[in-house]
Fold each of these.
Amino acid sequence: MTAVLEISGLNKSFGGIKATDDLNLSVTPHELHAIIGPNGAGKTTLISQLSGTQQPDTGTIRFQGQDITQIAPHKRAHLGIARSYQITSLIMQMSVIDNIALALQAHDGHSFRFIRPARGIKSLRDRAMSLLDRVGLADKADLSTAALSHGEHRHMEIAIALASEAELMLLDEPMAGLGLEASAQMVDLLLGIKGKHTILLIEHDMDAVFALADRISVLVYGHIIATGTPDEIRSNEAVQHAYLGEE
Amino acid sequence: MQKLTRRGWLTVIVMALLAVLPPVFYLTGNAFYLDLATRLTILAIAAVSLNLILGYGGLISFGHAAFVGLGAYAVGIPAYHWLYYSWGDWAVNGLVQFPLAIIVSAVFALLTGIVCLRTRGVYFIMITMAFAQMVYYLIVSIEEYGGDDGLVIDTRSELPLINLDDPLQLFGLSYVSLLVAMLLVRMIVNSRFGMVLQGAKGNEERMISLGFNVYAYRLTAYVISGAMAGYAGALLGNFTTFISPEMMDWSRSGELMFMVILGGVATTLGPVLGAVSFIVIEEILSTITIYWHLPFGLMLIGVVLFVRGGLAGLLTGRGGKDD
Ligand SMILES: Nc1ncnc2c1ncn2[C@@H]1O[C@H](COP(=O)(O)OP(=O)(O)OP(=O)(O)O)[C@@H](O)[C@H]1O
Ligand SMILES: [Mg+2]
């Protein structure tokens, strides 16, 4: 089975800080692979290099066998890579449904179409509505995005990632800032999509990670110190010493 | 038909007044007001075109007057050659001049947009202004076309059915052009293309990671906007029958920006309200005092700072969201 994602020898520094340090990782089809690590370990930087908004100094990234290291971020989206943001990144001035419809529109041919009103395109609207339904926001569809709560924004992030129907989803701390109940909802939501897509999940919430992940990699100072099943990671001494122990 | 909102009604009323009042003034012996209305209508077209990139695209372009100026020169230069170098009658044909104005401005927008749109924020403002000043100095340096002093256009564009020497018909063409420009921009911003343009204004990085080539969409909008401004320039040349580099000066670009912001960005009517207020207030203040620039400037700053949504927001009692 060829890996969906194959990262080899990835390095990235910011001035003196090595945010990514000789990172190697292989993610297999339809697994939910979690990446855990302390603050500043370089998790978001890794996601940004995978989605293409940041360029690695050295190393290669392969997606479904193709070297994508030099490919522009908007093209990676079309190859089948979607990302959600740790710090909510939505179009605040637009309505909730417009945000989702735009995500769908991105994968519905080019948008050099000037005549028909986009809000009148039923296929996009209907699919956007059903995505909002899936994340429990159907009744908020017409509100301004800015008017929604933080937790609702996190659900919109997931709906947008789902809209792409991407093979690989890069989810950067979807539970960041959520309360207990909202976190549990998010875990349910992720359990629902698990197995249908390949998911690289970054998460601080250990209960969520151990409930969801097929495999876990532990990132410390930009380097992966261990990869394994949840049980293997739990019992790994180096991991406990470097990370789990101090939590 | 959908029911008109408050802002929809305001648009209908303002546009109806603009259609009726100037000809009435003209026919009752106040030709001056028709002149004023024609000028503001033409400037409103330029403001509407700027609103596409500034209001909906969030691109603070400070060189929009260059497109207008190029459009005017696309009328003036062929007319000059027609007169002095006996170019054929095609050179004063509006069906040649107007498309030429659109093409010249569109090409200039494409070439400069390729560079400008690679920059962000203050750099974008500076570089759009720099390109406009470049054209300004280029025209100044061409003695043949009057350099600094400009050039009188001896013959207005010849068009089938319309005689632009008749002030009423010139106003009519300008007014219809403005209506078309407003409807065109409205159609564009509500289309898929427009959603991408507005999405990129709100969150560029998100739009890129969704898979949109934001640069290509913005460049397209920039070219459309430039082309429309070029058309407005061709009308302006016909109106003033005089072209000079001064039309492209950065202060002219600034005035267009003020019109858009004063009227309310990203609204259909905003740029028109902005142009009307700008011209009317300028006219009133300049008859009261020669120091009208200062109170005018203060007023503009007041509107920009304190009224969300500009005049269009003030008149309908809500913020800058379009209906
Ligand atoms: N654009 C940048 N410029 C300079 N330094 C950066 C930049 N982005 C990240 N860093 C640094 O790189 C390191 C890794 O940052 P990153 O955001 O990837 O960590 P993280 O694992 O996502 O942390 P967190 O758990 O807090 O989200 C940090 O030391 C950070 O300060
Ligand atoms: Mg992070």
Amino acid sequence: MPASKIHTVKQTLHVIGQRTPKIDGPTKVTGEALYTDDMRLPGMLYCKIARSPHPHARIRSIDASAALAIEGVHAVITGKDLPVPYGILGWSRDEHALCLDKARHVGDAVAAVAAESEALAVRAVDALVIEYEVLPPVLSIDDAKTLVDEPVNGRARSGNVLKRVELEFGDLKGEFAKSDKIFEADYFFHGTTHAAIEPHCAIAKVDGASRLTVWSSTQVPHYLHRELALVLGLEESRIRVVQPNLGGAFGGKSEPFDLEFCVAKLALITGHPVKCLYTREEVFYSHRGRHPMRMHFETGVDAEGKLTAVRSKIEMDGGAYASFGVVTTYYSGQLMTAPYALPAYAFDSTRYYTNKPACGPKRGHGTVQPRFAFEVQLDEIAHDLHIDPIELRRRNFIGDFTETINGQRITSNGFLECLAAVEKASDWKARRSSLPAGVGLGVAGSMYISGTNYPIYPNDMPQSGVQAQIDRSGRVTLFSGASDIGQGSNSMLASIACEELGVDRRDVVVVSSDTDLCPVDLGAYSSRVTFMAGNACVDACRHLRTQILEVLRSEWHIDEPLDIFAGEVRTKDGKHRLPVKEAFRLAEARLGSLGSMGWYNTPKLGGEYKGGSIGASPAYSFTAHVAEVEVDRETGLVDVKRVWIAHDCGRALNPMTVEGQMEGSAYMGFAETLFEEHAVDARGLHLGPNLLDYRLPTPLDTPDFEAHIVETFDPEGPYGAKEAGEGPLHSVIPAIANAIFHATGARLRELPFTPAKVLAALRATSIPERLPPLEP
Amino acid sequence: MKTLVSLDVNGRTYEIAVSPELTLLEALRYELGLTGSKQGCDKGDCGACTVLVDDRPTLACLTLAVAVQGRKVRTVESLAQANVLHPLQDAFDQHGAAQCGFCTPGILMSAVSLLEQGGDAPDRLSIKKALSGNLCRCTGYTKIIDAVEDVAANTSSPGPPGHTGS
Amino acid sequence: MLPLPPFAYHRPRDLEEAVALLSELGPDAKLIAGGTDLLPNMKHGLLAPKHLIALDAISDLDRVEVLDDGSLSIGALTRLSDLAVHPTIRVLIPVLAEAAAEVASPQIRNMGTIGGNVCLDTRCVYYNQTQFWRSALGFCLKKDGDTCHVVKGGKQCVAACVGDTVPALIVLGAAARVLGPEGMRAVPLEALYTTPGSDHLKLARNEVIVRFEVPRPGERLRSGFFKLRLRRSIDFSSFSIAAALRLDGRTIQDLKLAAVALNSKPRVLNAEKLGVLGQDLTKEVMSHIGEQFQRRATPLDNINVDSQWRKEVIAVLVRRLLERVSAVGAQTASVSS
Ligand SMILES: Cc1cc2nc3c(=O)[nH]c(=O)nc-3n(C[C@H](O)[C@H](O)[C@H](O)COP(=O)(O)OP(=O)(O)OC[C@H]3O[C@@H](n4cnc5c(N)ncnc54)[C@H](O)[C@@H]3O)c2cc1C
Ligand code: SF4
Ligand code: FES
Ligand code: FES
């Protein structure tokens, strides 16, 4: 594996760190930006997928004759047409584009049709005669443990267990024995889903040269590329995957889905372009959202509130397929070892298969749930020990440039600054003790990865590549496989080119997420894009910069350092200056056509044990939230009035987009705390797979978010940057839980906090006197 | 059976043959190629398809194309004039109010209608109310409300185009 | 996309033509006003009328007028957003403006009409779902099936009447003016609803609601509306309650409460039934009324909000509404029409 490259921070920055509108902002506000469903190809057919109405059933037979008899119906395919299994993780390829033998959840894909209109395709699906043999469904973790005669998925290790991870670090027994007090409780995190506003859509086309192009609303074009080749039995070099503008993803589009294989196969069969657009209901069935987790946490402390040992036992309801589940199982334990120092730590996590839509990576993959549990437990400890909850967290701070108990390398760490920022902004000290009953403030903290050094398929190639090209008009074109899913990664790349090459933003073009045109980037997941594609882009642009400056130094016969900014190359004293566009032409004349490849790979990281590299990140981000709530004691309705977010993102390459990520993350966490529930009932039916029953908060429900950026300049991140897209979700949830406790004395350990649950908890609580103010 | 209808969209008249069951959203997106208006649910739950019909925010997914004959339809494509962004579009861009941008056309149309109502500059609560039929999954709404507030505070509202006497 | 089933579209120019069309086309025809209830239901395969008869080309159906005798006339096609801001309605009968303002979302209020709201199909978590979802459930009594999932073993659909303006119109003593082949008739709003939830409107298939008549509110009328919902917008009711109250000093002269989002009929109680006529409206009496109402209202699992919790909070919600309504002064200003 090539060594990683560490970019030292330049002295003066001109573009990086500025609030800059996004390069695709104008086309998004005019409605010109094309999303997958905005494309229409001549002769295009429409695909609809027939789905199982049973949570668990063997497919006896499929009779397509009536469907095929409808005029305008071109083809019907079933599992037999796509028999090769796939899966985002190579070692758990446990799903088929269309079920081969049995259906594993309501909504599982069974057959697909292509017809000349969507309405016709719907009719054709209705005309399919599918015979099922209904099997007893496994609909809960308890079912999964007992109903093992007909396992949900044949890939299970044993029974319905996909994966169990047990790891222990430090002297757990000894540390617990030393503890002055041990706190123990059960917590529950419910299922929630991404609910991007754009439903999944894919279009496939085969050209005269038998090359297949798939346009898809995916956040992982590279993995989709690989899996398409695998399942279709085509060479990768004959497939092109393009991700058009994407209408939100959040982890919900980070693996291949049935529709992509179906449109590709149908295009190959019919010779027509084929489109498939999910209905909103299908989006809910494709899911891959937050795993419901039952969690038991046990935490020991000394009399000063210093943590001694933490042990968790976690059970996850994973749904019908593995998805990223093996990673989820690790993440649920591996990412809990900061920002607090843990002298000893152990976790035991198990992910079960059930007959429900598969869970996967939703923003904050695998860690949002245990983080909720642990941060609530910390609040319980603080309350019990009469220590201010912010102070308790400070006392246990792990520090920067250190290592966690499970062997993860921590670089920059601004957690204390995050705590200070939310403490100050919320006027914590004064208001915590003076708020009227029913109103409360709660705090929580967290950490998250900036990508991991663990590629999904083992290989030693770079995680991200960027190509930069300069043409004679003075324009810089960047080619990047990274997926802009709304988070603004293309704009981030453009900013880097502007910084390094002194060009105006209007003179940067970013060509992204097209496997024909762009070097590979592994995808928009694990908060890796800014860190990895950013570093690759710095690498590409620095090559060019160095070359161009060298040409000018020799042209000007000088030796001193030069700077490029605001469209000019110049010496410090300004004696020599030249517009960059001319500099580019000069350099091209001297050196030949200008272009360069940059890339990034992570250094070798992680503990020396099995699974030690899962969750090992080149840098960790840190977050603290304070939430203010008002609880209606007669109804149990909770109103979150305000949320203060402080996030250590390393350097904020563009504070405006960092704030956008912080606000959006806090929104999503807030929403799952109080509003959303992806629930499946005792029949295996989703309780309301639509945006009316699944309540995303509207503007009127959403509190004001106040984002405070904390900068720490990470040595490995591009210009010192770390992630900002997922970390700021985590701690808002326990902050709200802790605020409800502060407001009412009711301790909530089971999400979501529906008014019914809150009211029941209020009734069970004798409201305590507000605690006297605590010394800092 | 298809009937010939004449639709007034963004000041231009389109004559198209439609089936009665075609929604305005399908007509705009798939017949007229005006793909700015988006579909997030197709049944009234999300607001991504919001357009103005006779100046009022309306859900195109629950409107029949045949029913808007004789009415004026305005979509996001009408806002920028000769490549100059509408002040709201500019503010959305400058504030970073569009992340994935999928909700943006619908939200812009609700916001345009709010500002066209004239009167005092709306406060944050009124803005939230006006946008309360539009879901955004990316932004947490903060920057969207900032952008609308900014424009409301800095422009005198002209009223809808074509309306006289202000 | 959720394709609509095919249909023919008719746009009559006057009411008589509409009624004639309804009679002529029979049970395959359906009126469409704003379409915000009908079209989602058609997209869900709950009904597939072969003919839609649009009311929007008929003039004067969207007028709000105060008549000489002080009563109000509200055209059936009046849009909810217009009702919500109508100055006369806001002053004279705020309960109706408040109710209209709480429906759905701004866009849907721009489209939806009061007539459509009153005729809104009953709702149920097992019914307002796609064709596919209902097939996975095995359907239900109300449509294509033979069991009820709300009342296990129930023989009758109990889907909920949830139109927010319904309780408001009821407490105002409003009547619907209905045109049919036989001519015009008046139906008190309260008498419009019946059981079961699968057929909850006492309206013939060929009748059209033309307008609503609200008796003269008089100077002492106080009224108000409260809607319980988990989201502040884009959310149907979990419990909506309207109150109309006349006080003489503090003495209850007249009180009417009506609620929806229970079962297929609104729950209506007046001062007499509550046993508070002539009593002073004290804090205790308000609590007592709340408890009385709670006792007689039974939220069901037809709505996806915990029915036990809804039951528990009804007393509080009713009390709070009474507190609010009795605290503001009765309207006394004279309003010009
Ligand atoms: C996302 C969403 C949220 C919603 N939230 C709410 C809510 O919170 N509260 C609420 O009350 N409603 C809600 N609705 C339902 C609906 O929008 C409103 O009830 C609206 O008022 C219906 O009016 P309409 O004109 O659109 O009715 P339409 O859909 O046109 O008609 C509804 C029914 O009434 C019949 N009808 C209409 N007019 C007449 C007439 N004059 N005479 C006889 N029959 C007639 C029609 O034949 C049809 O059966 C919601 C709808 C959606 C899609
Ligand atoms: S109440 Fe029963 S019969 Fe009626 S819609 Fe609901 S499940 Fe069906
Ligand atoms: S697409 Fe029209 S409201 Fe969602
Ligand atoms: S910007 Fe993505 S949904 Fe609003």
